[in-house]
Amino acid sequence: MDSVYPPTTQDGKGGHDSHDVTSWVSVCSKGLWKVQRRRTNKGGRQSTFTAAWSSSDYPRMGSLCQVRVYLKEKQNDAETLIIAEEDEELSVKSKQPITEIIEVHSTSAQHSQDSVLHVPLGEWTILRLGDGHCDITEACVEGMRAEEKCEILLSPLGSGPEPQPIWEGHALRATVELHSFTPGKEFWEMSPDEKWEWVRSHKERGGVRFRSGDVWGSADSYSRALKLLITLHIHTIEANVKGEDETYKKLTESLVPSANEYKTIKAELHSNLSLCQLKLKQLERAKASATKATQLEPSGAKAWYRLGQACQLMNELEEARKAFRRLLELQPDSPAALKALKDVESREKETNSQLRQRLSKMFS
């Protein structure tokens, strides 16, 4: 599911140093939002902590970022980004020295599900880039230097096949400020073990977000896991690697899954993603994800059920019947499969009856 799209430069200049406005679509627990970002101060600085560890001026995956987000007062022109000075009376916590971030950082930052930005507003917060907990805030921080700010305009989107902005009375303005950050890595710089840890983290977070009712966020987490998992394919332990071969020894010492485990995990992620897409009424995508899951793991009962559901909702009754029958082969006593197959057969009879009536009228 491509629910988060990369920022695009609106003035045609691009680059980190151009005075640009970028826009993209991002996901949060409240659905899809259009984000417009405008950098309000260009200079910033290279993080002193980063200078000693990395040549990059910008946070990367895994960077611990000290950020603050606060809302701006609504302006008359909701479609224009206004640069405003920070409110000096805003009550905030003291900035932490960058050297203390790691000591106080836990496995996840503080998050606020009531906020579209998923961070406590007006407070200095530590978030880890790449976690996916604070999608909009993370996307803003990715292209910022230490001590830099940006203005953002947020507008909710409709949930149709081509989501449209819902502008009237819903646009939000905010300022995102990055104080400092620790080093991180691009995904191609990571070891296979590091990638695998990220995959497991996103997979687990996808389940947590789904159970909390954050279906959009759950789908995004599963998508992130799949994108990283694909890059691990060449590192999996193939069954034909034998004996004391150095490659085999190296792989068996790794945390990376075997080839069979890789297929199973990938199938589970596609199946879970299919469930999210069903909930979001993205039926074509749900069918495609479930199909991939059944191809990877033909014995996966949940994937067959979700494939049948997607086909049934799309009125592809023959394909739905085949999926549910396959599920019954795997789970002969499954009440859900029996009921689903009965519903499909009932709809097929109804469709055939309606067709006969139309034909009868045509030739009467």
Keywords, separated by commas or semicolons:
single chain; 364 residues; alpha+beta; seven-stranded antiparallel β-sheet; 11 helices
How would you briefly describe this protein structure?
The protein is of the alpha+beta class and 364 residues long.
Low-confidence stretches: 1-6, 8-18, 47-55, 75-110
Number of helices: 11
Name the strands of the widest sheet in spatial order: 1-2-3-6-7-4-5
Strand/helix succession: EEEHEHEHEEHHHHHHHH
What is the percentage of strand-forming residues?
Answer: 5-15%
Report, as a whole number of angstroms, the end-to-end distance.
50 Å
Q: Over the alpha carbons, how many angstroms does the gyration radius reach? A: 25 Å
Q: Look at the structure and give the mean pLDDT.
A: 76
- Overall 3D geometry? globular
- What percentage of residues falls in helices of 4 or more residues? 40-55%
Biggest sheet architecture: 7 strands, antiparallel
Summarize the helices and strands and which ones pair or pack.
Layout: E1 8-9, E2 21-28, E3 31-39, H1 48-53, E4 64-71, H2 101-104, E5 124-128, H3 135-141, E6 148-156, E7 172-181, H4 192-211, H5 215-230, H6 246-252, H7 259-279, H8 283-296, H9 301-313, H10 317-330, H11 335-363
Antiparallel strand pairs: 1-2, 2-3, 3-6, 4-5, 4-7, 6-7
Helix pairs in contact: 4-5, 5-7, 7-8, 7-9, 8-9, 9-10, 9-11, 10-11
